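If you are new to this repository, start here. Below is one unmodified record pulled from the training split, so you can see the exact layout before writing a loader.
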Amino acid sequence: MRLTVIGCSGSMSGRFSAASAYLLQADGEDEDGRLRTYSAVLDFGPGAMGQLLNYLDPADLDAMVLSHLHTDHCADIIGMQVYRRWLPGGPLARIPVYSPGDGQYRTRQLGGDPDEETYEGEFEFKQIGPGDVVEIGPMKLEAFAADHTVPCVGLRVSGPSDLGPGNATLGYTGDTDLCDTEVEMARGVDLLLSECAFEDGRDSVRGVHMTGSRAGELAQRAGAARLLLTHLQPWTDPEAVRRSAERVYEGPVRAVLPGEEHRV
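And here is the target side for that same chain:
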């Protein structure tokens, strides 16, 4: 599997990055036995659509998976909808959109469209929650409860390793504070992508986001092999949260940058 950072800015787009959006890819056989690359986006916040065009033809996108329906994680679904409907030579094929809550209603809110608009030509909306499993080609995504202000899921992804034979696992927290269900999600993963919007000593509110130390504790308790920090707000110091995580987590840790590809 391969994870490309389309955007990693937290709560909004930033000076140098779109908001949360990640391209997840793996190679596998289609129903006719031919090898192909399967592609899904995990979250799709402001600025994501334009940046995705640098990495993938939207015609090759197989699915969208939204951890939750806060605007900074889903706003550019409208850009994707417009692209798929109105591309000259289109429209593009319908794809599934997985999310907690009513994804169709949320998309209509974002688009400012009338109630009659269903987007059925572009999207098949499917609601997911803790315990649900989604399969996208050779990848299996399992949803776990997050600790956030709206329904949100962390995602444990298993699929073919890009580094050798066999399968690999990747964990993505979505937006969350530290909680037992996220530790379960991240148990023994080869790569953990953890949100880290808050800074230790600066942000005291709980039940919303991670700090560096809490992201580090999550990775340490779960036994994750690598830790990547993301969803840093434009005013958050990447080095400060990285140092906080390193004080708790014994493995390699870094804050991601847009455009990076991480093989799992």
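Two things worth knowing about this chain: The chain has one domain: 2-263. The chain is about 20% helix and 30% strand.
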